[in-house]
């Protein structure tokens, strides 16, 4: 038993240290959007914003978007079957700005998720040489779009992702976000996207795509039944040979994350199981990895012998170095890192909750619509 605990502790230390090295080195290779110069001459741009029952947040977000500095731009808002005042808000805004075009979806066709269909409808109506897919709760600096499109044009990119600065309220939610960000960076390694043909990354807040590349993959049609539309759009583009890159959006692009930890747990119902390809075996494997790297080191400090305790302490220190590097880029209090063990358990809970709900229902429920799990699996790639 002691040998097994020692071997587990050694493995956890090696993996966590490798994780830290990869993420810390990689973050220093990522460039900031704020450092990229804008340009005077820019290709036309269409911004596609899907919205469903977002009347409260939609108006201020769209007003900020309509104020961005860009020579030839259109904002396409797609109202996806909203039952609140979203339609009225959008119609009022169209009266105030010729930049805004609004389309209303009243019925969801078979074989589509609501958001993916809204993105598809918006893209079909777009006239710009570049398409920006974004969300209704994203905030843009007035020069963000000029800088991003100028960067894409300068480097002859067909796909550019800007990872937003995330606003999270509440200490536990922030601790969960730090872990989520570290795992995301390690898994997708966005600093490799521009030269590695096997690497891709996408975020719903800022997926900029050339119109020609988007049409070459037939748009969102292959993604019609995936809640991971942002990531899988990037995957499809990369498979088709599109030139991609990723930037950090600090001070340029900001996203309000969930209002609370409970809201995040509910919100992740739609895509947490999709992240492991709807496969219980993958979820079990990922849970084992999280337990070994994030749970065992704490237990080892309590139940382990001297050597095991030392290895577990070094593992925790290595993990905290990675999280500290992320938190120092924010104005969040450093004591949030003390919530890391609880944040790990929250992550496991939301993953298993989403999977068990999907399996028990035989479906995923998202914004008032139920989608068959068998169809989601059949059309997932």
Biggest sheet strand order reads 3-2-1-4-8-6-9
Poorly predicted tracts of residues:
none
For the termini, the CA-CA separation is 41 Å
The rounded Rg comes to 22 Å
Could you say which overall geometry the principal axes of the C-alpha atoms support?
Answer: globular
User: What count of helical segments does DSSP give?
Assistant: 13
Order of helices and strands: HEHEHEHEEHEEHEHHEEHHHHEEH
Key terms:
3-stranded mixed β-sheet; alpha/beta; 381 residues
Describe this structure in words.
- This protein is α/β, with parallel strands linked by helices and 381 residues long.
- Helix 3 links the parallel strand 2 and strand 3.
- Helix 6 crosses helix 11, helix 10 packs across helix 11 and helix 10 packs antiparallel against helix 12.
- The longest helix has 26 residues.
- The mean pLDDT is 93.
Brief summary:
The chain is 49% helix and 15% strand. With 381 residues, it is an alpha/beta fold. It starts with a helix and ends with a helix.
Helix/strand layout:
Blueprint: H1 2-27, E1 45-51, H2 55-66, E2 73-80, H3 86-96, E3 100-105, H4 114-125, E4 130-133, E5 138-140, H5 144-154, E6 159-163, E7 165-167, H6 171-188, E8 207-210, H7 211-216, H8 229-239, E9 244-248, E10 253-256, H9 261-267, H10 280-303, H11 306-327, H12 340-361, E11 363-366, E12 369-372, H13 373-378
Parallel strand pairs: 1-2, 1-4, 2-3, 6-9, 7-10
Antiparallel strand pairs: 4-8, 5-10, 6-8, 11-12
